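Local shape tokens:
==================
===
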Amino acid sequence: MRKYLGILTGCRLFAGISEDEILRLLGCMKAAPSHFRQSSPILREGDLLASAAIVLDGSVTLSRRAFAGSEDAGRIPAGGLIGLSNAFIPEKLGFTALAETDADILFLSVGQLLEPCPNTCGCHLRLIRNLAFLLASDDSAASARERHLCRRTTREKLMSYLVSEASRQESCEFDIPLDRKALAEYLAVDRSAMSSELSRMRSDGLIDYYKNHFILKRS
């Protein structure tokens, strides 16, 4: 596992935990990487998930079934987490994870994550605190999206999202982390209709933008 320590120290789950402590924790959890060939499934939509996963090498694409086939749900690079929240919910997985390239994946047992070691070592306690923070962050992000989606029109959804980003970044001028395709999927709107609405919002003096850079003109 030593060759993956550079990736693991950058993973949010192990924030503030040293390399030696990470190795000790992985040993306690009996965690070992699994290799997946390009395009092979790592997790399948409809499965019940008992483990979270960390991408150690390569990248993973997420997709979910839609009425007209499948739709992209995101891409997870090396160091990213998959299914952390889902592993705590006894519901079927809402996405499929495929290896975009040959990939090494580390599966972590949720039960082992929550069960402190007999020595109650500080690094395990830190791991549990990191886990709680990540789950709270995921819940907050999901709640924010629900607030945007409950808006009636595409313009209202866009303004709800842009205002929340401006507030989060404490500036009326900011970059968003989504391209147009991902933004349309996030807001559950038609991409071409959304692009047209953005143009109208700029003409109306509400916003200005260039690619992913936005300026709120007035609230």
About this structure: The two ends are 50 Å apart (CA to CA). The CA atoms of residues 107 and 122 lie 22 Å apart. The chain has a mean pLDDT of 84.
